[in-house]
Design goal:
alpha/beta, binds 2-aminohexanedioic acid, Bifunctional protein PutA
Length: 507
């Protein structure tokens, strides 16, 4: 059963629960506990985090290295079964997971449900990838008298460094891929959301994945630095800001060790173009979802809306109507559409951004925050009129949408401006004209291009997700090439003639 008891009752019981996160294998002096508070109510502690020390990082990587060959030798089928057992364990702990998504990360219930769904989808998809790719060998063509085969293996110890905005799905996704490929994993969750990560790792261990194979190392940037500077590390899968990805890349390059694999999924400056053939109601629904669902805290979220000038007044009036109806407040209240942002720093940065635009004379629509939001990190949903995406200097990770008008004959210029920003994550288009779609598609330099729908919520396997340029390295999460980036390819070539002793490994 997905839910053991009525969900509401169970969530109510879990409201008082205190959680904790600590390194999987603790060593020596346990050190200080840092409180984890609710984004929606900073006076409310959800649990505590104990950061990994430098010694613990070193030991964890050593333990991972020692066990990895055995994990790799298990083969794809056995690893797949363990990942599927972990997926089952996640589903059996639905209430605990939803509760932590809400209390630690400030998610609304629908967002929390989607988060659990995506996490389970990742586990099952990568389990199947383990079966598809790691149960070889695969014979390669060759001349008579020679046998060639290809096998895939784990690279060694992989680090995963994950963000707070998908504290379960993007914590477990890259780790599951690395595990599927036969790597040991050391996982550092975002400092804001270690509790749900600790629960996820415990559930994986209960499902039978050995503790040394999948280790949790909580902490902030300093712990990330300990991890990524270790020369024994085979690779890093990172999701977070472009700036942090660039810093990790430099750290990896400076190590005197094997050349590391680096997989980064980073930010975006995502645009949507709406032309005068679009359906206004559909545009309104999709713009509001893309910009304000999850309080705009998705790297896929819409930041810059371009509306063709002759329909702009009507469309913006409708968007504003829907925007005024958004319910902002406590994410545990089922009526809430827009919850808090993650922490006081995020709130301050967004408010600075809005204040600066206001000072520059931009027209700004801002919602009033209800009094009930006073104890938390809430940012009023905001829409700012701009001339162009070129006026945006950095990603504004929250419920702030920028809009601009464009004359129809300047569509190509708009696309050039969007591309010139250098990010390449998502792009939306609302148009019912085929030639427009073809033009925009041919110019798009993004990983995920969405037509006549919202531009968030990529589904594992159906919509592999990830960007280009400043938005990341690829390959796409949940896609057919992802797990391979965590693997080595080994070719064995055997002389099967008499001179070679008639050897055959495939026989
Ligand atoms: C992120 O926000 O870090 O398509 C990426 C989506 C999600 C985005 C995840 N899969 O909205």
């Amino acid at each position: 059963p997905l839910v053991r008891e009525p969900l509401e009752k169970r969530l109510e019981e879990l409201r008082g629960r205190h959680w904790n996160a600590a390194p999987t294998l603790s060593y020596g002096n346990p050190g200080e506990m840092a409180p984890i508070t609710q984004p929606q109510d900073l006076s409310h502690e959800v649990g505590t985090r104990r950061d990994a020390t430098e010694d613990e990082v070193r030991l964890a990587i050593g333990r991972g290295q020692a066990i990895q060959p055995g994990w790799n030798a298990l083969g794809g089928e056995k690893r797949a079964l363990l990942l599927e057992a972990a997926a089952d364990a996640f589903e059996e702990n639905t209430a605990e997971i939803l509760s932590l998504c809400q209390r630690e990360a400030g998610k609304t219930l629908p967002d929390a449900v989607l988060e659990l769904r995506e996490a389970v989808d990742f586990l099952r998809f990568y389990a199947n990838e383990a079966r598809r790719l790691f149960t070889g060998p695969f014979p390669l063509p060759g001349p008579t008298g020679e046998e060639n085969r290809l096998t895939f293996n784990g690279r060694g110890v992989f680090a995963t460094i994950s963000p707070w905005n998908f504290p379960l799905a993007i914590f477990i996704g890259p780790a599951a891929a690395a595990l599927a490929a036969g790597n040991a994993v050391v996982a550092k969750p975002a400092e804001q959301t270690p509790l749900i990560a600790a629960l996820a790792v415990r559930l994986c261990h209960q499902a039978g994945i050995p503790e040394e194979v999948f280790q949790l190392l909580p902490g902030a940037g300093e712990v990330g630095q300990f991890i990524t500077s270790d020369p024994r590390l085979a690779g890093v899968a990172f999701t977070g800001s472009t700036g942090t990805a660039q810093a990790i890349n430099r750290t990896l390059a400076a190590r005197d060790g094997a050349i590391a694999t680096f997989i980064a999924e980073t930010g975006g400056q995502n645009a949507m173009i709406v032309d005068s053939s679009a359906l206004p109601e559909q545009v309104t629904r999709d713009v509001v979802a893309s910009a304000f669902q999850s309080a705009g805290q998705r790297c896929s979220a819409l930041r810059m809306l371009y509306v063709q000038d002759d329909v702009a007044d009507e469309i913006l009036r409708m968007i504003r109507g829907a925007f005024e109806a958004l319910h902002v407040g406590d994410p545990e209240d089922l009526a809430t559409d827009v919850g808090p942002v993650i922490d006081p720093d995020a709130k301050a940065a967004l408010e600075r951004h809005v204040a600066r635009r206001e000072k520059n004379g931009r027209s700004v629509w801002r919602r009033e925050l209800p009094h009930s939001t006073i104890k938390g990190c809430f940012v009023a949903p905001t829409i700012i009129e701009m001339d162009s995406i070129l006026d945006l200097k950095r990603e504004n990770f929250g419920p702030v949408l920028h809009v601009a008008r464009f004359p129809g004959h300047q569509l190509e210029q708009v696309m050039e401006d969007i591309n010139s920003v250098g990010y390449g994550l998502t792009l939306g288009l609302h148009s019912r004209i085929d030639s427009t779609r073809r033009l925009v598609e041919s110019m798009a330099r993004v990983g995920n291009f969405y037509v006549n729908r919202n531009q968030i919520g990529a589904v594992v396997e159906s919509q592999p997700f990830g960007g280009e340029g400043l938005s990341g390295t690829g390959p796409k999460a949940g896609g057919p090439n992802y797990v391979m980036r965590f693997a080595t390819e080994r070719v064995v070539c055997i002389d099967t003639t008499a001179a070679g002793g008639n050897a055959s490994l495939l026989a």
